[in-house]
Amino acid sequence: MTKLVPVTLSFFAIVLVLSGCAGTAPTPVATPTPQLTPSPAPTLAATPAPTPTATLVATAAPTPVATPVRTATPAPAEASVTISGFAFEPQTLTVSAGTQVTWTNNDQAPHTVVSNDRLFESPSLSRGATWSRIFNTAGTFDYHCSIHPSMTGRIVVE
Ligand SMILES: [Cu+2]
Q1: Is residue 102 part of a domain?
Q2: Predicted model pTM
Q3: What percentage of residues in the chain have a pLDDT greater than 70?
Q4: Distance between Cα 98 and ligand 1 center (Å)
Q5: Ligand 1: distance of its center to the CA of 133 in Å?
Q6: Domain ranges, residue 93
Q7: C-alpha of residue 113 to centroid of ligand 1, in Å
Q8: Number of independent structural domains in the chain
Q9: What is the pLDDT of residue 158?
């Protein structure tokens, strides 16, 4: 340790002398400052990105929405009654609820379709004329011709 002290002292002495000489130098030579060339940034070793383990998530297949079977505009079932020979044919007609029944008058004489309890009543039907009614509720509907009361018919809705 004791040897280091003179060494350092002599080092500073040299530095002082050199600096003193530099200060008294008539033409100070511009000592080029060493350009610190920027050391290239240490390239980070490209650590391989962790490959994502493909975890296959069993996505449940979307269950199809049960589309209603009912169509947008359900066409009503149709049935027909012919008026011929001053009689309804068939005299008794059985239909399901929602059925549209159409009467057609094939007689020369006019006829009507009037329920006995006045639930429905057609206008006077001339030859070839038709009249329709949809029976939505179940039940038995007796009707007659208001012009010829002997003409009777029945609609049974199930
Ligand atoms: Cu009639």
Answers
A1: yes
A2: 0.55
A3: 53
A4: 26
A5: 18
A6: 78-157
A7: 8
A8: 1
A9: 97
Distance of CA 74 from the midpoint of ligand 1 (Å): 33
pLDDT of residue 15: 39
Q: How far is the CA of 107 from the centre of ligand 1 (A)?
A: 9
Is position 41 within any domain? no
CATH code of the domain in which 148 resides: 2.60.40.420
Cα(65) to ligand 1 centroid in Å equals 53
Quick check: is 21 in a domain? no
- Residues of the chain under the 70 pLDDT cut: 1-74
What gap in Å lies between CA 43 and CA 121, rounded to an integer? 98
Q: Cα of 147 to ligand 1 centre, how many Å?
A: 5
Q: For residue 75, what pLDDT is reported?
A: 74
The upper half-sphere exposure of residue 35, i.e. CA atoms within 13 Å in the direction of its Cβ, equals 2
pLDDT of residue 27: 47
Give the distance (Å) from ligand 1 centre to CA of residue 11.
143
Q: Is 53 among the domain residues?
A: no
**Residue 66's pLDDT is what?**
59
